[in-house]
Every structure is written in C-alpha cells, then in structure tokens.
C-alpha cells in the first residue's frame, strides 16, 4: 500500500513540476521572446533543476510546443474534431471546421501575438509553427479521408485540391488578418469561413444522397 501511495505521489509531483515549467516558460516567452529565453532561465523561474526540464521536454522547441498546446482548449478541440469526422453533409463539415479554427486561434491569440512581437524573426518559432501546420494539415487530410471512405461525400474532381483549400483557409494567418488586424467579430469570421469553404469545396465534392 505504501509503495502504491509513493508512486501516486510521485506522479502528482511530476505533473505539478511540469505545470510550473510550462507556466514559467509561457510568461518568459511573452516577455523576452523565444530567443531571449534559455532552458536555464526557465528552470530558475520554475525553481526546478535544468536536468528536470530536459527530462520532461528534451529541448526549448519541445517546451514551446507544449506551451502552445497548453493555451489551446484541447478537450473542446477534440470534441469538434470528432463531430467533423461524423458530419453527414459538406455544409455541416465546413461549419464545424470554421468553429475549430475560430476557437483554437482565439484561445491562443494573446500568447502568439506576444511571442511574435518579441520573436518575429526567430528561426525556432518558424520551425515550431511549421511543425504545428504540418500536424494540422495531416489531421484535416485524415478527417476528409474518413468522410470519403464512409461515402458521406463522393469525390468528383480533386481530393488534394480540396484538402489544400481547407488547410489554407482555416490557417492562422487568415484569422490574424481578419479578426486581429481588421477587427472582425468571431461569429462573423466563422460564418464567412464556413460559407467560403462551402462554395469552394462543393466544386470538388458532391454530397452523397445516401
């Protein structure tokens, strides 16, 4: 019983340590930018050892990736992703896709804006953004394939073109330009995005009659 308690206690401590590191990293990244923060400064701020940081995250890129994941409501994102994969019409699919983009970028915008302001030319930031974009591209491809395989939408022109359109229009840059730069309301952005995707994708997919 004592051994079980110790294992449980260590897991709790490890989780708390990880949270302290991520909270410290987030704050330091916002203040100093990516290039102005080191593993050592994160460890000092979180009051943990440098080896502990490396053990949990491997590198500064690993920490930044975890921070970005932390500021996104992953549970809500997964719920919407599941809904998208079960969509029965193209219109419902693009509506959910627009909601996913809106919620994800709105949640992370404060952190990403601060980070870009201090690290706009950082090669490390560009690297991590590329990784996240590749992950998003892959997930969207998988969801479209699920829908196609279930015969909910029948492909009639070009699957790759449809996938690229979805990826480009639901990207972070589109959200930044319209919502942050031009001041669009979130609902206005969602409606525009859903309708734009529908008009573009309906030429590549036809809704199944089944």
From TrEMBL:
Keyword Transmembrane: no
DNA-binding region: 38-57
Domain HTH tetR-type residue range list: 15-75
Any one GO molecular function term: transcription cis-regulatory region binding
Pfam families: TetR_N
InterPro entries: Homeodomain-like_sf, HTH-type_TetR-like_transc_reg, HTH_TetR
Record key words, sorted: DNA-binding, Transcription, Transcription regulation
Annotated protein name in UniProt: HTH tetR-type domain-containing protein
Organism the protein comes from: Silvanigrella aquatica
Taxonomic placement: Bacteria, Pseudomonadati, Bdellovibrionota, Oligoflexia, Silvanigrellales
């Amino acid at each position: 019983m004592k051994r079980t308690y110790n294992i449980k206690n260590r897991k709790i401590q490890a989780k708390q340590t990880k949270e302290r590191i991520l909270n410290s990293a987030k704050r330091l990244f916002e203040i100093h930018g990516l290039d102005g923060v080191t593993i050592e400064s994160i460890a000092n701020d979180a009051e943990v050892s440098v080896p502990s940081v490396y053990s949990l995250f491997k590198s500064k890129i690993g920490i930044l990736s975890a921070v970005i994941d932390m500021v996104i409501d992953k549970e809500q994102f997964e719920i919407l992703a599941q809904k998208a994969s079960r969509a029965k019409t193209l219109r419902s699919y693009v509506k959910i896709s627009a909601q996913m983009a809106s919620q994800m970028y709105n949640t992370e915008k404060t952190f990403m804006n601060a980070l870009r302001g201090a690290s706009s030319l950082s090669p490390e930031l560009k690297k991590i953004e590329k990784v996240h974009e590749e992950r998003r591209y892959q997930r969207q491809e998988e969801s479209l394939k699920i829908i196609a395989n279930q015969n909910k939408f029948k492909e009639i022109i070009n699957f790759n073109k449809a996938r690229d359109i979805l990826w480009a229009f639901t990207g972070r840059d589109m959200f930044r330009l319209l919502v942050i730069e031009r001041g669009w309301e979130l609902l206005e952005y969602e409606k525009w995005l859903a309708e734009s995707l529908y008009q573009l994708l309906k030429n590549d997919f036809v809704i199944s009659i089944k």
